[in-house]
Every structure is written in C-alpha cells, then in structure tokens.
C-alpha cells in the first residue's frame, strides 16, 4: 500500500467543531459564545458603517476589469503607505525616525495569521528555531510556527489561579536562558493587548519589567497585534506595547523586532484577509533591503501575492479623514458594548468562583470554568463555550444575557 494510506489523522479544530455542533442543536435558546467574531446587540455580524461607506466609494470608482489584476508580491503600494503611517507615525510616533532611517521592512499579508506565517517562515529559515508563547495562548500560534519550521515550541507561565503571573513568566525565561547553549536566539510571541484567551494584559509597568528581561536575554520579540482598539476603544492608545518596545533610548533589538498586525477585528474585515508584517531592523537601509528581498521570496513561494479587495477598502478608511473619524467611532462603539456586557455580567453574577469580567480586556471572558462545567452548560442549556472556559462576549446581548447568567449561576457552588 502507498504512503497516502498511512497519513495520521490531524486533531480537529476545536472551536470550529463546536460551531458545527451548535448549528445542529435544536434548542431555541441555543447560544454560541465560541468564535471571536464581533456581533452587535441584535446578534448580527454587521459591516462597520465606516467600512460600508468605503466599500460604496470603491464600488463607484470601479472601472471595468482594472481592479481584478494581481497585486505586487508585497502588496498594494498605497496600503503600504497608509498602514506605515497608521502604525509608525500615528500609533507609535517614534516610528517616524525608523521610517526615515529606512529600517522597516513591510509586507501586506493575509491578515494576522498570514503575518505570523511569513514571519515564522523567515525566522526559521534564517534566525531561530525556538519560540516561546504564553500559557495559554491562541492555539493556532503553535500550529503556525510548527508548520513553518520551528523545532522547539515552548510556553512561558502567564496565568495562575485566575491572575496574570509576571514573576513566573520572567523566571521561566531566565531558567530557559541558563539551561541552553543554543547559538540561535529564541523568539517570543507577545499579545499586544486583549490577550487571547485570558483577557488579562500586563500593566505598562509590568511590560517594562518583561521587555527589559526579553531585551537582556537577547530574545527576538514578535508582537501579535490582532485586537488594536478593542481594549480601550482607541486604536492609538492600544498600541502601548509597540511604543514601549520601539523606544530606542531603552531598547536596541539587535536581531530585529517583528510586528504582526491585523484589520480582521478592528475593521471587521475578517474574511478579506487584511493585515501586515513589519520587521524593524537594527541598522539602516542595507539590512532592510536584504530582509525585504527574502520576505518577497517567501511570499512568492507561499501564495504569490495577497488579495486586493480588502486592502483597497482599508486604504479608503485610512486615507479619507472623514471615514477615518467614523472608523474611530465604530471601534469605540464596539469596545463600549463589550465593556457594557462585562459590567452587566458582573452585576448578575457572584465572581468568587468565576473570573471578574471587569478586569478582563477585549472580546473574551476567561471564565475559569472547567471542562466538565463547560460540558454541563452545553448539554443542559445549549450554551457553547470553548472547552478551556473562554466565552466570547459579543455573543451576549439584551435578549440572551439573562438566560446565560442564570445558567452560569446554577454552576456556582
Ligand atoms: N492572533 C491572535 C491572538 C488572534 O486571536 C487572532 C485571531 O483570532 C489572530 C492572531 C489572527 O487573526 P486573523 O488571521 O483573522 O487576522
């Protein structure tokens, strides 16, 4: 028999499997709190008003056939200009100096996942074979890095007894550094804000301790910024980790810094796959040109060039001052609704045995429920959470929050 007969079964995607089960569930009160897609107070996934207007403008400007051609390998030049300005002038003003020194290599990517894929491929080819993720983390992190050539996948302590554990985190990194004589620097993935799944983020003071240690240990920082704006409602405020990390009076990243950025959540462009990878190089233009050339080769070999439509929509939002202001408002509305859902849950529940939602950032509530409690919710009430107890807050609204809180209350001992 051929080799194709002996392919082992890959484990199913846990979250998407739950959605299939949800779709087949006949209970009228069924509630899907699994997937990280924003839904409004009517349970709908809607296009943001700013994005819908940009789409309308794009439709009007369509000329026959012209817009279906290929984009360049590294993406649309206008997108590049708009996103570089958004990230390295507006979100992080000290980036201007880096742009002037021609130290930022940039590619438009297939959203945040695509940015992580290109980054991990590049890093495994040239710089590193060890990566550290928080425990827990978005499960696809380890998958992406493994698929793209990383041999050593590790997790640092992040969460303990319902709290962020910064001391445990730092001591894990120190211990690992002492016990290795690898000549390749290790990478570390950092959630820029709204940590998925715990919703617990370090404070700025804690980030300083953490980044000081990462810098001292000469690790390569990879900032995963998938939820910019969904924490405070202000896209610029939420870029605090980028601003701290690129403060050159404090840190010089001798092996570069990688930023994987996504417009999936903050523009609602999920399926259009709009995002970017930027590599901040340590020295001037020559180093950047080499990195550029290798990123281009990787993209060419992986998928040739990114899709066009979503990046054209983002271009209009980012470059039209009226729509940009509207977008800021849209993001703020999302963050406010998420905060109000958390406040309503906090009122209705006793948080001795569950996580206090008002301390958590972003789209998710890490409830602290164990797998058997999650099963009980699903079996008895048709309320679907991810097995680790992660609850997607935007699935809650005025029509189901009482039902869900009643079911949660029944679990309280
Ligand atoms: N990183 C984290 C932590 C995420 O939660 C997600 C999405 O759920 C992503 C990256 C990437 O999402 P996308 O590829 O849709 O931009």
UniProtKB/TrEMBL annotation:
Statement: the UniProt record of this protein carries the keyword Cytoplasm: no
A GO MF term: pyridoxal phosphate binding
Pfam families: Aminotran_1_2 (PF00155)
UniProt-listed Enzyme Commission number(s): 2.6.1.1
CDD domains per UniProt: AAT_like
GO cellular component: mitochondrion
Cofactor: pyridoxal 5'-phosphate
SUPFAM superfamilies assigned: PLP-dependent transferases (SSF53383)
Enzyme kind, highest EC tier: transferase
Annotated Aminotransferase class I/classII large domain residues: 29-408
Biological processes per GO annotation: L-aspartate catabolic process
Reaction catalysis annotation: L-aspartate + 2-oxoglutarate = oxaloacetate + L-glutamate
Keyword line: Aminotransferase, Pyridoxal phosphate, Transferase
Subunit structure: Homodimer.
Family membership noted in the UniProt record: Belongs to the class-I pyridoxal-phosphate-dependent aminotransferase family.
PANTHER family attached to this UniProt entry: ASPARTATE AMINOTRANSFERASE (PTHR11879), ASPARTATE AMINOTRANSFERASE, MITOCHONDRIAL (PTHR11879:SF22)
Miscellaneous notes: In eukaryotes there are cytoplasmic, mitochondrial and chloroplastic isozymes.
Protein name: Aspartate aminotransferase
Source organism per UniProt: Lachancea lanzarotensis
Lineage of source species: Eukaryota, Fungi, Dikarya, Ascomycota, Saccharomycotina
């Amino acid at each position: 028999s051929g080799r194709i007969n002996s392919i082992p079964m890959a484990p199913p995607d846990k979250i998407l499997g739950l959605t299939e089960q949800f779709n087949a569930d006949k209970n009228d009160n069924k509630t899907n709190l699994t997937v990280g897609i924003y839904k409004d107070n009517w349970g709908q996934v809607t296009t943001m008003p700013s994005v819908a207007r940009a789409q309308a403008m794009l439709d009007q400007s369509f000329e026959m056939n012209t817009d279906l051609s290929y984009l360049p390998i590294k993406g649309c030049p206008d997108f590049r200009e708009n996103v570089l300005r958004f990230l390295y002038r507006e979100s992080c003003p000290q980036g201007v100096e880096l742009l002037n020194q021609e130290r930022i290599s940039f590619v438009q990517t297939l959203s945040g996942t695509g940015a992580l894929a290109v980054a991990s491929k590049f890093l495994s080819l040239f710089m590193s074979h060890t990566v550290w993720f928080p425990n827990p983390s978005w499960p696809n992190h380890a998958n992406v890095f493994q698929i793209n050539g990383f041999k050593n996948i590790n997790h640092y302590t992040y969460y303990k007894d319902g709290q962020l554990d910064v001391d445990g985190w730092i001591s894990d990194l120190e211990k690992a550094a002492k016990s290795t004589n690898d000549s390749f620097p290790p990478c570390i993935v950092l959630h820029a804000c709204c940590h998925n799944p715990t919703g617990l983020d370090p404070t700025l003071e804690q980030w300083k301790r953490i980044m000081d240690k990462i810098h001292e240990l000469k690790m390569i920082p990879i900032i995963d910024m998938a939820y910019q704006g969904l924490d405070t409602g202000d896209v610029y405020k939420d870029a605090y980790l980028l601003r701290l990390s690129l403060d050159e009076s404090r840190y010089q990243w001798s092996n570069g810094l990688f930023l994987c950025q996504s417009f999936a959540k903050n523009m609602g462009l999920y399926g259009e796959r709009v995002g970017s990878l930027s590599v901040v190089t340590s020295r001037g233009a020559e180093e950047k040109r080499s990195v550029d050339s290798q990123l281009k080769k990787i993209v060419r070999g992986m998928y040739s060039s990114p899709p066009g439509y979503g990046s054209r929509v983002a271009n209009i939002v980012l470059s039209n001052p009226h729509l940009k202001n509207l977008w800021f408002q849209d993001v703020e509305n999302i963050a406010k609704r998420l905060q109000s859902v958390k406040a309503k849950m906090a009122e209705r529940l006793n948080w001795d045995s569950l996580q206090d939602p008002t301390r958590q950032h972003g789209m998710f509530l890490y409830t602290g429920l164990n797998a058997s409690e999650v099963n009980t919710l699903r079996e008895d009430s048709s309320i679907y959470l991810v097995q680790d107890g992660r609850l997607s807050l935007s699935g809650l609204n005025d029509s189901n929050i009482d039902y869900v809180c009643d079911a949660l209350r029944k679990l309280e001992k």
